[in-house]
Fold:
Amino acid sequence: MNIRWSDYKQLLDWTAAQSVAGQVAELPKRLAQTLSEVGIDASMWRDLVWDWQKYFGKTSCVGRPESMKADAERNGHRHHRGQAQAAACFG
Structure:
């Protein structure tokens, strides 16, 4: 499923605002619904964006675990680093 441009822009704006002075606002319900529609756990969104290396390490592949596995196999590998941790981010 794709995210509408207007929703994506609002999500980017909200996410960028979360970096200011360490304050965290509640994710608006509409944006949480948008994330849910594409399979991302809304409670993980901020952490996923700001601390993505905690989940994905230094890999060049970021996404749902099954997408990461498919990409690794296409490139002759069994998996990408962070594939298991990524499962925590996607509902």
About this structure: Residues 5-17 form the longest helix (13 residues). The chain has a mean pLDDT of 81.
